[in-house]
Specification:
Layout: E1 4-9, H1 15-28, E2 33-42, E3 48-55, E4 61-67, E5 77-79, H2 81-91, E6 97-103, H3 105-108, H4 114-122, E7 128-134, H5 138-142, E8 150-153, H6 158-173
Parallel strand pairs: 1-7, 1-8, 2-6, 6-7
Antiparallel strand pairs: 2-3, 3-4, 4-5
Helix pairs in contact: 1-6
Length: about 180
């Protein structure tokens, strides 16, 4: 099985920002990093109207969830298959580390990004996985996976992310 680590935080603690910063720090240490995070999309008034899947290593993004008045899937939002397909594509790129953002209630119920996360970790010689997990879903997700290699809990500063990057790069060099 592949090793994994977690970025854990409550909604609104900028797990995506932390994941992108960690990706930058790991790349600076010579590791190949790919993957995705989910970022909210706001209208002119600042109200969240959806979420995008955003690459951690390129400016690409694709919508995954949008507010709708007809046939909502969840709380007035509808999922977009293209967003899940884009996330899977990003997670399938050859890399030393793959970041899987947006691990929450859907994934705790073994849906959403769960198949991608579980498949990556099940690979015998796969990349190290960093999962961005909502704090209230951590136990459900962690109980279904082997013990993590490391983690950081949000909120945290960039120094804590740099320390995590150092620990991960050291551990991955020993593999």
């Amino acid at each position: 099985m592949s090793s994994w680590s977690a970025i854990v935080g409550a909604p609104g603690t900028e797990k995506g920002r932390a994941a992108k910063k960690l990706a930058e720090l790991l790349q600076a240490r010579g590791l190949r990093v790919t993957g995705f995070v989910q970022e909210d999309v706001s209208d002119a008034s600042g109200e969240t109207v959806g979420w995008d899947i955003v690459s951690v290593s390129a400016p690409e993004k694709v919508g995954i969830l949008a507010r709708t008045s007809s046939e909502p899937d969840l709380c007035g939002y509808a999922f977009r298959a293209a967003g899940f397909a884009f996330a899977k594509e990003l997670a399938s790129e050859s890399a030393d580390v793959v970041i899987v953002g947006g691990v929450g209630k859907l994934e705790a119920a073994k849906q959403g990004h769960w198949p991608v996360l579980a498949e990556l970790i099940a690979r015998a010689d796969g990349p190290h996985v960093v999962a961005c997990i909502r704090d209230n879903c951590l136990s459900s997700v962690a109980l279904a996976l082997p013990d993590p290699l490391d983690y950081v809990e949000l909120p945290c500063d960039d120094a804590a992310l740099a320390e995590l990057a150092e620990r991960l790069s050291t551990a991955l060099a020993k593999r």
